[in-house]
Amino acid sequence: MKQTLRAVYLALLAGVAGCAQTPAGCQVATLGTLPVLNATGSPIVEVTLNGQKAAMIVDTGASVSIVSRKAAHDYKLTALSGDVSIQGVGGLVQSSLFQVPSMGLGSAKARNVVLVDTPRVFGYINTVPVVGLFGGDFLKQYEVVFDLPAHTINLYQINGCSSPTPMWDGPVSSLSFQRIGRSHIEVPLELNGHKIDAVLDSGSSMTVILPRQAHHAGVHEEQLKTDVSFPSRGIDRNVLQVRLHRFEQLKVGEEVFINPVLAVGAMQTEGEALLGADFLRHNRVWVSNQNEKIYIQRLVPPPRKDPTFEPEMMQP
């Protein structure tokens, strides 16, 4: 599988769209701008599978790239021998491997892309089937730039640039991350002054805190029982019940968010929390796999009221 994936990355590099407008000596190869099709939740981008239109979630929290079992059949993907185990919210799931002879993404085409199947069905967006997701095995080859307020994601490869964010103007803060496992990104957070390690997970619509970490941050079970509860579903189709709690403060690197509403639930994760798509939806976030740093540009800086961790269901 590793050799096949390497061939995919080389095929993508051969099809990049060229260089963005940058300072002299700075080269930025790009797959082009990927329009994000949805305005809330995890970002979804348009792709083609064997020439047929489809859509996929961009999921930094997934170790591998995934296709639904139904889509593998409908798009006539090639079944490969062997299987793998993937982590869902309820535990490990055994999955089969499929190959896409031709995948279109942005201005590039990839050949013989390997995807792991899941029993989950992802539904539709604008009548286009959502067939699966791009995981960390794919994304870690690039500088991944989430500009979800502008409804775009860019995948870059950068060389010879003095600035780590050569296309951005204005104030930018940064924090270093660690790679855990094959492709997960772990970032340090502070919740009510308590330090926790979180996996950056654009596939999670909300930031989720483990109950024991909420307890360490001063929030007890009796308080959580009075909070709003709702179900959350993972790639394994298991349902996780989470509660929405308003904390005093969340710190992401140098950025401080006051009174954030975060989900609390006992999910399976390599970290102590998931930093979800709610963080990405209202800020520009540059994930530099080259520098192992995350660069953040807040579009609603303090003291203005920041909607980052304010779910629509909690708004008046």
From TrEMBL:
Against CDD domains, the record matches this protein to: retropepsin_like_bacteria (cd05483)
Gene Ontology MF annotations: aspartic-type endopeptidase activity
Superkingdom field: Bacteria
> Which residues constitute the signal peptide according to the record?
1-22
What InterPro entries does the database record attribute to this sequence? Aspartic_peptidase_AS (IPR001969), Peptidase_A2_cat (IPR001995), Peptidase_aspartic_dom_sf (IPR021109), Retropepsin-like_bacterial (IPR034122)
Q: Which UniProt keywords apply?
A: Hydrolase, Signal
SUPFAM superfamilies assigned: Acid proteases
Q: Where are the transmembrane segments?
A: none
Any GO BP: proteolysis
- Pfam families hit by this protein: Asp_protease_2
- Domain (Peptidase A2) spans 54-138
User: What is this protein identified as?
Assistant: Peptidase A2 domain-containing protein
Q: What is the lineage of its organism?
A: Bacteria, Pseudomonadati, Pseudomonadota, Alphaproteobacteria, Acetobacterales
